[in-house]
Amino acid sequence: MPAWQRIEVVGPVTLYLGDCLQVMPEVGVVDHMIMDPPYEAETHTAKAKAGSVRRVDGGAEFRALNFDCINEIRDDVVAMGRFSRNWFIAFCQGEGIGRWADCINASPLRYKRACHWIKPDAAPQMNGQGPAQGAEHFVCAWAGKGYSKWNGGGKRGVYTHNTNSRHRTGGHPTEKPIELMREIILDFTQPGDLIADLFMGSGTTLVACAQTGRRSIGIESNAQYFDLALARVRKAVAYAAQLGVQPAAHVQADFLNQFGG
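^ that's the sequence the OP posted. Answer follows.
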């Protein structure tokens, strides 16, 4: 029996419904892993408390997280890095940077650094008892041989994008902006590369891959999110084909202006 409950292939994108720790060993080696795993335990606790708070600033209401935190499986997720030829990238909260670094440094992967996603439209601290969180982060580790390489030259690892972009679906509580994921993919990967997202959620990373001429694999254990990702991927792949987007070194401006994911 396969490790996944369902598989869907849409052009250069393959989606698996199942547990990534079981599915990934059957999928095999990919060029990169770019993922947004569950948050740290502290964030889950804070989100649970925030569920009863109503926003007064006009922003989207807080949503409870309906998945477990990363703490118990962080080491297992890092171990999946053995299936990456190049980059292993995982989003986290500030509290998780050191924990991810410790796990990575104890593995064959080579920890490089934490990068930062600045969120100008981040929610305020509703109770006014301290500063609000204005950024998220992602850790970068090199899984390949020799020196690490990317397309950013001396660029700083700082990415500034609104959380609530015009392309946000709102179907997942931690949905990343498509603009952010495109920038990361263009910085760290090459046209035609195969990218795996072990926690694909609503499929933003897969959509960004389709837009930038990369192949991708997504794994998700929640059937509702799987269906949402599948619908978004079908739309993105169809639009890419309509505009003739193929694995290429650049993104077609017409595609990005008309369809953001």
